[in-house]
Amino acid sequence: MTELLPNHLAGRWQTGGGPGTPLLDPVLGTELVRVSNAGLDLEAGYAYARDEGGPALRALTYAQRAGLLSAIVDVLKANRDRYFDIALANSGTTKQDSAVDIDGAIFTLGQYARWGASLGAARWLPDGETVPLAKDGAFLSRHVQVPTRGLALFINAFNFPAWGLWEKAAPALLSGVPVVAKPATATAWLTLAMVADVIAAGILPAGALSVVCGSAQGLLSPLRPFDVVSFTGSADTAAAIRSHDAVVRRSVRVNIEADSLNSALLLPDAQPGSEAFDLLVREVVREMTVKSGQKCTAIRRIFVPASCYAAAGEAIAAKLSRITVGNPRNETVRMGALASRQQWESVQAGTAALRRHADVLHDGSAVPLVDADPSVAACIGPTLLGAARREAACIVHDTEVFGPVATLLPYEGLPDALDQIRLGQGSLVASLYTADAALAADAALALADSHGRLHVVTPETAAVHTGHGNVMPMSLHGGPGRAGGGEELGGLRALGFYHRRAAIQAAGAVTDSLDGAAPQRSAPGH
Ligand code: NAP
């Protein structure tokens, strides 16, 4: 039997009971390690995080906590090569795709270390201006944000075992809130390895960082009113979390990042042959194939003027036909595996459902695999579908296939395109391709109510834009409606989730005294 990896809870490593759940190599189908949290005392573990980790973190200033993040960055950089080995084995990703997760995590932590240092020697954040309550100004109202006294439970998806942990942990630890991470079981090894290295380095106070791997059962029951939950995953699990007693009766604050039917939109000015057209084609192919399309932000729907539909389909299909798929240990392979055979089945089923209503413009299922057994490997080529008929397109606005699959859709005029994009019921991101800056600004604003992020690609940004699907810590990540209604990142705005806001009503002498201990800059979002 393979090694059963322990969990880190209540300040110590604890092995769960039973044989555990095996984690597999999604290309070779072999067992790598096992995880189990059976029999763990979560109640005691959470209490330890709150009672030991919380006070120790809150005793530090923002700048000191930022120093902890910098030290974590150093540890992760020192062990980076091993993380790539684990990702290759357990996620089946190419080096480039693993970097999106691993280097993305390190970059995000580094950013929060820098921003945190700028908050200086404070332990709370001012929120807005002091305003008078009495006519003569002798009685005032001052809003403050202070770290919550609970813990932060992170329930993460399988596609980002590294970034998924640290993009949440960076703002939580900087805020002074202890973290309990529950990675998705299929790819939990990388999360565990990173946490083990950080714990071994002795950077964080005891109880500041815990990790529990395996079943999600009973995870939410021990939560208390000042705890927070940040969830990334499917809409179904999100619904189960939202309706849990901890949330419904104990007001545990929840952030949800769920699935999303993100769009790419070629604006009407951009015809075939234009630079904007080529930029859309390039970005669609990149989004469909990076991490085998297993990015919550990946382009799922591609909107082009009806006059460009045929040309766009041909151009995207031509590029997709050059993508090599298979074992990422072979250097000629551009696209590795899905995270598991279960995901492979789910992608097959989702694609089959879409194919019943759409045309196949490029068939990934026909692509021969490089160095991989198609009966074992969770590998599948990219598939481009086309839904030229409006009635056929309904399912496209509703079905997220979490793999290398996207659908091309024609539109008749910009208002029609915007209406169709909104049929996604709220998305994480839409990207717009055009050479017309004013048109781009109008379209971006028109879509801002239903998206967390609008990514505008104009020819002058061709070499510098950060990518439709790349989540940059400077910008908001999250989206309304179907996308879960959550907000993450966005610079120091992310700290708001881990702080409680309160109004202090008092005489000027009291509010002045508060301000003596305030950081130079105002609270996130103000
Ligand atoms: P999932 O089944 O919802 O699993 C996500 C996490 O929830 C895993 O850690 C899972 O643990 C845990 N979980 C399962 N049942 C639970 C329960 N009853 N209570 C609490 N936690 C529970 O999602 P998935 O299929 O792995 O992930 C793919 C989905 O995530 C896609 O739809 C994608 O769009 C979405 N996603 C969104 C974002 C974003 O930022 N918006 C990012 C990535 C992925 P186990 O692994 O042990 O089952």
UniProtKB/TrEMBL annotation:
<dbReference type="InterPro" id="IPR016161">
    <property type="entry name" value="Ald_DH/histidinol_DH"/>
</dbReference>
<dbReference type="InterPro" id="IPR016162">
    <property type="entry name" value="Ald_DH_N"/>
</dbReference>
<protein>
    <submittedName>
        <fullName>3,4-dehydroadipyl-CoA semialdehyde dehydrogenase</fullName>
    </submittedName>
</protein>
<dbReference type="InterPro" id="IPR016163">
    <property type="entry name" value="Ald_DH_C"/>
</dbReference>
<dbReference type="InterPro" id="IPR015590">
    <property type="entry name" value="Aldehyde_DH_dom"/>
</dbReference>
<dbReference type="GO" id="GO:0016620">
    <property type="term" value="F:oxidoreductase activity, acting on the aldehyde or oxo group of donors, NAD or NADP as acceptor"/>
</dbReference>
<feature type="domain" description="Aldehyde dehydrogenase">
    <location>
        <begin position="21"/>
        <end position="461"/>
    </location>
</feature>
<keyword id="KW-0560">Oxidoreductase</keyword>
<dbReference type="Pfam" id="PF00171">
    <property type="entry name" value="Aldedh"/>
</dbReference>
